[in-house]
Amino acid sequence: MSAARGVAVVTGASSGIGAATARALAGAGFEVVVGARRVERLREVAGPIGAQALPLDVTDPASVERFCAEVPECRVLVNNAGGAIGLERIEEADEADWRRMYETNVLGTLRMTRALLPKLEASGDGVVVMVGSIAGHEAYVGGGGYNAAKFAERALTRALRLELLGRPVRVSEVDPGLVETEFSVVRFRGDAERAKAVYEGLTPMRAEDVAECILFCVTRPAWVNVDQLVVLARDQAGASVVHRRPGPEGA
């Protein structure tokens, strides 16, 4: 099951950064396995690039176990599954939303990494990429739940980097800022107009921009580890610091 560069697994690959990363990896010579809950969307991504599409819900341990059992070897794992829900302040927080964000961003990452680590190490040059967020570096009003999850994911990443020191597995963290994907639609529970307003008056990054950063990390020589890469739009200088121009979006 190995291509020229080996097998790369991408979670949350039915759209956005995950889908763009799958395409980038396939184009670079990896054999790609993609996983997500929306299987039909996933197949639409996988078909044109010759990837293997498998159902995956990282919040479900049994789903993770089934998925990983179908991946006999692995050299690259891109932990992309995640996301935010809502913008409520902590005083108005919904524990169910916080629990879902923690399950997806933190425990889902733990489950996938733990399950595939033996195969990553057996490859002789494994790479784990955590797709984090600028929200894991800076807190902002209304982002408490997502901040908490992404800060925790960064801590997990750092601990893993230390634990794997001396073993043939690299650990990289790619932390993007504003990227125009379905992220905001999900955050605002399907409210497309509210999601669109997030990007008004500025030029956000595209999913492909982040995918190129991930590809850069996994294609460095085996002795090079990109520990952390923070990538923001030119119009963004922090988690909640942006420049918006009047007139048409992105003008």
TrEMBL record:
Pfam hit, one: adh_short
PROSITE patterns, alphabetized: RIBOSOMAL_L24
Keywords, alphabetical: Oxidoreductase
Oxidoreductase as UniProt keyword: yes
InterPro entries, per the entry: NAD(P)-bd_dom_sf, Ribosomal_uL24_CS, SDR_fam
Residues annotated as transmembrane: none
Family the UniProt entry places it in: Belongs to the short-chain dehydrogenases/reductases (SDR) family.
The name this protein goes by in its record: SDR family NAD(P)-dependent oxidoreductase
